[in-house]
Amino acid sequence: MIAAMHIAQFLAEWDAIIAALPNPHLLQTAEWAQVKAILGWKPFYLVWSEENGKPVIHTNQIPKGARFLAAALILQRSLTLGGIGTGLSVLYAPKGPLLNWEDSNLRERVIADIEAFARKQRAIFIKIDPDVCLGTGDPSNTDSTLNPDGVIVEKSLQSTGWRSSKDQIQFRNTVLIDLTGSEDELLMRMKQKTRYNIRLASRKGIRVRTGTPADYPLLYRMYAETSLRDGFVIRDEKYYHQVWNAFTPPEQTIPAHPYTQSLIAEVDGEPVAGVFLFIFARKAWYLYGMSRDTHREKMPNYLLQWEAIRLARSHGCLVYDLWGAPEVFSDSDSMWGVYRFKEGLGGITTRYLGAWDYPVRPTLYTLYTTTLPRILAIMRHRGRAQVNSIAG
Predict the structure, then answer these.
(1) Which helix (H) or strand (E) holds 193?
(2) Are the CB atoms for 364 and 88 separated by under 8 Å?
């Protein structure tokens, strides 16, 4: 168990294990679990090793010298009623579990073990949203592709009682930039207008510098301003400081250690835009971006993203995940403008499986999924009022 070993050693070993699995993800790291633990989520670490040619599950344990086949960070939120515990909970494996999803035997074993784990925890349901690719490109275009292996996984989940979730916590779709090749090749993959705006930003005096923790309050204020302008809700400042500090680069290089780096675009020393780049297992993620209304005509976000691409390459990343594409590929989608910007950077639109729920208690699950949207609407209203007071 975790208590029987040094916690820092366990977390480092966990990150190393998942970094070696197919499609390792930032949201499955020990650092992400520790951030969520502050918010009341209890982390469980499930890992499957090969013993006698078969996968064996271990909970909060890491067997020595084993060959690891799969892993899943599962977060548990206990439910209360009037401040009193109910003994019920909900479970979520953000961007997990991690495994070779094309291996049907392994997939069936891992899913069955996760279902059993959820029943043991008396959960109402468990949610998963692994990066299983269903296809690439806008499905309405002729150049889009379908991934047969992803479709098989989708049908397999449907046949075993899983339901496509109405509550998609993470983006179902995203844009991925292949970072291999020279800088000239990466620029040529971009749309002509994007390349023009990168050069324009440089000519207009935009300069990009590396941020430090001392810049976090400034970056949050810009993020609050961005959320009000673009109509999305963010959390309070303390939460983002916890995330950013949890992923601060280590003093010594640890190969599997996930970390973040901020970049800030300025005009004559005045900050006008920023991004947070998260790096793990040779992949980069653009989780947070912020900008001000001032100097937008100088296209700071274009140069900022180009410098983020260059930074990711310098850290050995092979892929840059721009974190989000429309749910519906139409200009009626609220993300359409941002998506067109991301698409111009030369990435490939990737459609994933999305979130799926396994209802352990179907009646309670139905009640939970019909009541939760109303609660979230109230939280969004309160969150917007709080952000207004910060940005205003």
Answers:
(1) helix 192-203
(2) yes
* Tokens linked to 372: 């939760």
Q: What is the pLDDT of residues 343-383, one digit of tens each?
A: 999 999 999 999 999 999 999 999 998 876 665 555 555 55
Are 368 and 124 spatial neighbours (Cβ–Cβ below 8 Å)? yes
What DSSP designation does 26 have? Answer: G
Q: What is the mean pLDDT of the chain?
A: 91
Whether 1 shows a pLDDT value over 50: the answer reads no
DSSP state of 98: B
> Cα dihedral angle (334, 358, 383, 278), rounded to 10 degrees?
-70
Return the pLDDT at 290. Answer: 97
From CA 36, how far away is CA 6, in angstroms rounded? 20
CA distance 267 to 207: 7
CA 386 to chain centre: 25
CA distance 94 to 73: 7
